[in-house]
């Protein structure tokens, strides 16, 4: 390994700054895009590789879990290899695994390659923000953060739309292949322009035991959640073993991390009441929000006959109003108690979620899209101040650890909540179907349809389809009712946090 480099103090300017910032912004956009681009494509992918749509959601959860696990490694890898080298290496890995995802032919292959994609994508979000702050002069850090935030907010808008168009007009493989030209262009820009701002190499150690225990219990928990429904939960010995491993692994992980001098995940920041309340509320609220972003496109395509493209249009409205509301929240954040902003944002998400409780299989496009449009207003009220509230509760030298832990738990909450909600959705659909069938006068319905020219088999098929559609709609309504309750709980929980001790400056977490 080469000797450590001197820490650079120069920043970029002119055209090099413009193109370097573009490369970093596009990289962040690409990684965030991949968290939502597959949501509308799950039915296409599941059909293409011959699995059920429920199993298809593993494509989403595997990416989220791998991304979360990689977060604690970012600091160690940056110290060991340098931020620019790590950034380029992560882009290379992301591109390779994207290509492998696109050529996958089985569920096992695509899940493994999505794990690889998540591992490589995990460091890219914090690295893009860190490098943007390095290449811009200090007086323009606000512009750097605005650019980074804009790509983070707009990517979820384009993700469902782009995923739908590519899946319908080309094939689902292209939701992964589309990353290749972007990654190659960003790699070239980073190699040519970012070398002057490479960070110094320094000795670093990694908490191998803590990291190993974390991977163990997270992997056991996620596999248990994904396979439990298909294997009848705790009536299956393999699921029982996974549950035991998850519980014991988590207990050992907590015990080790609380006593380790340099832990992989610094759990000691939970001693701050403001941080603990913020991150728990964040986990509940984000996990609940993320499940709707996964389930709604599936319901629209499986039961309402939507194409992936139109499912993408219906779900993308959330991002539109979020972009509009973000500058307002930015101004209010300097004047209003962040607890009020966060509580309002989460309550707004809960109210707009309850607007979906009366959806049915005959709902028109705007009945489906309007709650999405309204929901976006609450998103920046929730996401922006909760970070300041949580990080403002910890000491200055703990901010980086606390920010990494918030990112880790936010991403993990999305994966875990998706697995739980998918299982509950399927179970509720079966219960609703049984109740509908028990109340349905099948003979009268069949006779009525025959009188209108339907054959016996046609009539039975139509009745079965109607029952299935209505059962799924009822199950979907139940999921949204529970989601609304969870949002209201999270909105109340945030008031456990005291006012933050200090304000967190731009980029302080990195």
Molecular structure report:
- With 510 residues, this protein is an all-alpha fold.
- It has three domains: 10-206, Growth Hormone, Chain: A (Up-down Bundle), CATH 1.20.1250; 207-263; 267-510, Growth Hormone, Chain: A (Up-down Bundle), CATH 1.20.1250.
- Helix content is 75%, strand content 0%.
- The chain is built from 20 helices and no strands.
- It has helices at 14-33, 42-49, 53-56, 58-70, 74-81, 83-102, 107-121, 124-135, 141-170, 174-177, 179-193, 208-228, 237-259, 273-303, 308-333, 338-354, 365-391, 399-439, 442-451, 456-493.
- Helix 12 (208-228) runs parallel beside helix 18 and helix 18 (399-439) runs antiparallel to helix 20 (456-493).
- The longest helix has 41 residues, at 399-439.
- The radius of gyration is 24 Å and the shape is globular.
- The two termini are 25 Å apart.
- Mean pLDDT is 83; it is low at 1-8.
């Amino acid at each position: 390994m080469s000797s450590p480099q001197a820490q650079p103090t120069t920043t970029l300017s002119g055209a090099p700054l413009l193109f370097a910032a573009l490369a970093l912004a596009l990289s962040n956009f690409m990684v965030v895009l991949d968290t939502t681009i597959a949501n509308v494509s799950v039915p296409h992918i599941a059909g293409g590789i011959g699995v059920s749509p429920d199993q298809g959601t593993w494509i989403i959860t595997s990416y989220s879990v791998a991304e979360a696990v990689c977060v604690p490694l970012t600091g160690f890898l940056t110290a060991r290899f340098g931020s620019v080298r790590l950034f380029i290496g992560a882009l290379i890995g992301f591109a390779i695994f994207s290509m492998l995802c696109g050529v996958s032919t089985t569920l096992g292959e695509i899940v493994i390659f999505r794990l690889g994609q998540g591992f490589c994508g995990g460091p890219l979000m914090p690295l893009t923000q860190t490098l943007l702050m390095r290449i811009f002069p200090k007086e323009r850090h606000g512009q750097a953060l605005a650019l980074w935030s804009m790509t983070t907010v707009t990517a979820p808008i384009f993700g469902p739309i782009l995923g739908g168009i590519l899946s319908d007009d080309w094939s689902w493989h292209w939701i992964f292949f589309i990353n290749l030209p972007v990654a190659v262009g960003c790699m070239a820009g980073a190699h040519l322009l970012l070398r002057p701002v490479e960070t110094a190499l320094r000795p670093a150690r990694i908490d191998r035991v803590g990291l190993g225990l974390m991977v163990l219990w997270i992997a056991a928990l996620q596999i248990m959640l994904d396979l439990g429904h298909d294997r009848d939960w705790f009536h299956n010995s393999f699921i029982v073993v996974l549950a035991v491993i998850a519980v014991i692994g988590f207990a050992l992980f907590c015990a080790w991390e609380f006593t380790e001098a340099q832990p992989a995940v610094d759990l000691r920041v939970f001693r701050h009441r403001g941080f603990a309340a913020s991150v728990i509320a964040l986990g509940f609220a984000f996990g609940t929000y993320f499940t709707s972003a996964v389930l709604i496109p599936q319901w629209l395509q499986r039961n309402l006959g939507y194409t992936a493209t139109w499912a993408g249009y219906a779900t993308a409205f959330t991002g539109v109003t979020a972009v509009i509301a973000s500058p307002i929240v930015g101004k209010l954040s300097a004047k209003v108690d962040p607890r009020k902003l966060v509580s309002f944002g989460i309550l707004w998400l809960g109210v707009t979620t309850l607007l979906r409780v009366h959806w049915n299989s005959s709902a028109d496009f705007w009945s489906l899209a309007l709650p999405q449009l309204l929901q976006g207003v609450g998103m920046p009220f929730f996401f922006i101040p909760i970070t300041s509230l949580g990080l403002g509760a910890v000491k200055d030298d703990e901010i980086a650890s606390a920010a990494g832990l918030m990112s880790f738990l936010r991403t993990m909450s999305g994966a875990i909540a998706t697995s739980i909600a998918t299982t509950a959705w399927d179970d509720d659909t079966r219960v609703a179907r049984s109740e509908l069938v028990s109340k349905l006068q099948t003979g009268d319905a069949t006779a009525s349809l025959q009188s209108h020219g339907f054959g016996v088999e046609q009539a039975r098929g139509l009745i079965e389809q109607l029952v299935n559609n209505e059962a799924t709609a009822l199950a979907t309504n139940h999921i949204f009712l529970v989601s609304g309750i969870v949002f209201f709980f999270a909105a109340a929980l945030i008031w456990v946090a005291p006012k933050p001790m200090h304000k967190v400056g731009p980029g302080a977490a990195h």
